[in-house]
Amino acid sequence: MKKYLISPNRKQYKANLHCHSILSDGNLTPEALKALYKSHGYDILAITDHERPHHHQQLAEPDFLLITGYECYIRPDKLGRYNPYNKEVHLNLFAREPQNTTMICYNETFCKYLRRDNAFHEIKARAGSERPREYTREYIDEFIRTAKENGYIVAYNHPYWSMEDEADILAHEGCFSMEICNYGSYVSNGLEYCGALYDKMLYNGKRIFCHGTDDNHNVYPVDHPNNDSFGAFTMIMPNDFTYSSVIHAMEQGEMYASMGPVFREVSIEGNRLHVECSEAAHIFLYNGGKRPGMLHAAPGESLTCADFEIDKDARYIRVSVQDAQGRWADTRGFFRDEIGLPPLEA
Ligand SMILES: [Zn+2]
Ligand SMILES: [Zn+2]
Questions:
Q1: 158 alpha carbon to ligand 1 midpoint, in Å?
Q2: Do residues 248 and 257 make contact, with C-beta atoms less than 8 angstroms apart?
Q3: Is residue 211 part of a domain?
Q4: Strand pairing of 103-104 and 126-127?
Q5: CATH code of 327's domain
Q6: What spacing in Å lies between the alpha carbon of 94 and ligand 2's midpoint?
Q7: What are the distances in angstroms from CA 41 to CA 12, 15, 16, 35, 237?
Q8: Residue 14: CB atoms within 10 Å
Q9: CATH number at residue 166
Q10: 17 CA from centroid of ligand 2 (Å)
């Protein structure tokens, strides 16, 4: 029987799950961001300003959802100051309920960084310890746990920019997904496509999904080469187009990351994996080993489908395609138990 990892019958909704407005260090208003993304074919936008959630539900329409959330950071400086040579952690918190704007582990000194809105000190619901943030294993785990206990799902942002080691990222407990591409950082550093890092996570047994975002601040207009909008996105496949179904789909990994290409189908029948996608130059089936499945287009030609045999010893599988412009699309990793393979013998 055919098992769909991405079904051709499931509608895909295009989302930008990370962006900044004038409420923190972005340059566009929430209204302008919504209009810009809607006019570029997006269905879902999460305006994730720094350190304080706003729900923006007044901008929602029947065919355009706004996910409530915000971006939090944990860094070594006692006053929360930025140092480009320090490791730090940035997390996106997405609220299960659209009206939830609880501030997690608020600390006034630490959290005022980059705030622009005058209402910043307005009392909002708060949860968790309000001591100065600490860049320690214990504090980061406590922060993520507190966010989850208070109605958020938590994503790990721009791993390259944050400069953490693989071991650091592996140790974070409770993030449902990591940004495999953060386009704002990609524009500035060229390395914020983290397919290799994502494979390291999966190889080490980390159950984490992947998604793509713009993390746009719109310092430059959209037709400028330094523009940071419309470079990476997430396709989400909810059962229906409601806020709660979209959050549920994200949490279940019913989504994939892309910088351009789209998947039309990824399915398994027996030990065969079938891929259908938009025009690609390369299609890979990663399996946690040294010999991924691969199919390369001849020069000047393109691929729109591929079939692979799933190796019986695969640690996991995930599919990536790259188009002629070098833009990637990536499914999440699926572990053996998720695709009906027996456990490997020790
Ligand atoms: Zn960030
Ligand atoms: Zn950001």
A1: 7
A2: no
A3: yes
A4: parallel
A5: 2.60.40
A6: 13
A7: 12, 9, 11, 10, 16
A8: 17
A9: 3.20.20.140
A10: 10
Please report which ligand is nearest the Cα atom of 17. 2
pTM greater than 0.90 (yes/no): yes
Last residue of a domain, one of 259, 293, 319: 259
CA 275 / ligand 1 centre spacing (Å): 33
Average model confidence (pLDDT) across the chain: 95
**Ligand 2 centre distance from Cα of residue 51 (Å):** 10
Which ligand has its closest atom nearest to the C-alpha of 184?
Answer: 2
- How far away, in angstroms, is 236 Cα from ligand 2 center? 20
> Are 90 and 73 in the same domain?
yes
Could you tell me the CA-to-CA distances from 306 to 53, 276, 288, 290, 321 in Å, in that order? 43, 7, 19, 19, 10
3-state secondary structure of 156: strand
Domain that holds residue 104: 11-259
Do residues 242 and 304 share a domain?
no
- 219 and 192 inside one domain: yes
List, for residues 57-76, the tens digit of each pLDDT value.
999 999 999 999 999 999 99
301-325 tens-digit pLDDT: 999 999 999 999 999 999 999 999 9
Q: Give me ligand 2 centre to Cα 269, in Å.
A: 40
CA of 158 to the centre of ligand 2 (A): 8
Residue 163 sits at φ, ψ, to 5 deg, of 65, 15
**Domain tally for the chain?**
2
Q: Say which ligand is closest to the CA of 48.
A: 2
* C-alpha 32 to ligand 1 mean position (Å): 21
Question: Are residues 296 and 216 located together in one domain of the fold?
Answer: no
% of the chain surpassing 90 pLDDT: 92
Whether the per-residue pLDDT at 114 is higher than 90: the answer is: no
Task: Pick the ligand that lies closest to the CA of residue 72.
Answer: 1
Q: Is 345 part of any domain? A: no
Cα of 232 from ligand 1 centre, angstroms: 15
